[in-house]
TrEMBL record:
Protein name stated in the entry: D-arabinose 5-phosphate isomerase
Annotated SMART domains: CBS
Domain (SIS) ranges: 32-175
Keywords (A to Z) from UniProt: CBS domain, Isomerase, Metal-binding, Repeat, Zinc
């Protein structure tokens, strides 16, 4: 049995159904977007079985991209959770057949409460579609299942239609990266878009010495600081140089090396610094990688030391 060919056939079948759906988009999708945009309430997604699972994903995508949304199982709605639907809300009902018993049961109650209904189904003649204010067609000609029965192409199209709806709403609302970050503060994407240098900055107990400090004393400070480097400042606390372990190793190769020399004599003068502690941590990581350094010294506008951002701090925070 050629499983590689089977996989290829499934992907091509589903892709073909998506392509056909893209060629027959109706004006109803625009009506759905306008209805949601003009609503003062939430968009509540409901469905059972595979449609319910896809609906839960659609609700999650909407909620994370600027549209207040949650999933409500129709069976739970019939046993008290109908009260979760407010008078300003909209319901997105999903049923490929449009006849799912559990979902159909709540339709008269939605109508009684004057709750607008957007329907995703395969036929405008289905019960779900007839109750709807807006009908979105998710019909497919062929499921990828060899028996043409298990929801495969149809669930893929339903999810894709939900994604398309979410993207349209994002564009309509001019949803930006900063908005996305506010909904994803703990995820890797959110950290890249939300966490700032100041959030990770080491500001206390920094390994700092003056320009006149002897190397042997600076090495002790370096060891205690656990950054592998020592920051050298002048009398005004302005950053003058940086002594790294690399600088120290290179100095050891010099025939005239002395532990009594001034630290500034072997340090890197005017090291790379950052004056904007409000910069995104992900952008700071890019600077660190571009300059092939381990730490980034952060200063104020007058070059006075504010703190240090080490690459390990970025990695531990999930900024990659």
């Amino acid at each position: 049995m050629d499983f590689k060919q089977i996989v290829k056939d499934v992907l091509l079948t589903e892709a073909n159904e998506l392509e056909k759906a893209a060629q027959k988009i109706s004006f109803d999708i625009e009506k759905a977007i306008d209805l949601i945009i003009n609503s003062k309430g939430k968009l509540i997604v409901s469905g059972v079985g595979k449609s319910g699972l896809v609906g839960a994903k659609i609700a999650a995508t909407l909620a994370s991209t600027g549209t207040s949304s949650f999933f409500l199982h129709p069976t739970e709605a019939m046993h008290g959770d109908l009260g979760m639907i407010g008078k300003e809300d909209i319901v997105l009902g999903i049923s490929y057949s449009g006849e799912s018993e559990e979902l159909v049961q709540i339709l008269p109650h939605l109508k009684r409460l004057n709750i607008p209904l957007i329907a995703m189904a395969k036929s405008e003649n289905s019960t779900l579609a007839k109750y709807a204010d807006v009908f979105i067609n998710i019909a497919v000609d062929k499921e990828a299942c060899p028996l043409d029965t298990a929801p495969t192409s149809s669930t893929t199209l339903t999810m894709a239609m939900g994604d398309a709806l979410a993207v349209c709403l994002m564009k309509k609302r001019d949803f930006k990266k900063e908005d996305f970050a506010s909904f994803h503060p703990g995820g890797s994407l959110g950290k890249k878009l939300f966490v700032k240098v100041d959030d990770l900055l080491r500001k206390h107990d920094l390994p700092v010495v003056s320009r006149e400090t002897k190397l042997k004393d600076a090495i002790l400070v370096m060891s205690e600081g656990r950054l592998g480097s020592v920051i050298i400042t002048d009398k005004d606390n302005k950053v003058f140089a940086l002594l790294s372990d690399g600088d120290l190793r290179r100095a050891l190769m010099n025939d005239n090396f002395s532990m009594d020399c001034k630290v500034e004599d072997i340090a890197t003068i005017h090291p790379k610094t950052l004056k904007n502690k409000e910069l995104l941590a992900s952008d700071a990581l890019q600077i660190i990688e571009n300059y092939k350094i381990q730490l980034l010294i952060v200063t104020d506008a007058n070059d006075k030391l504010v703190g240090v951002l080490h690459i390990h701090d970025l990695i531990e925070a999930g900024i990659k």
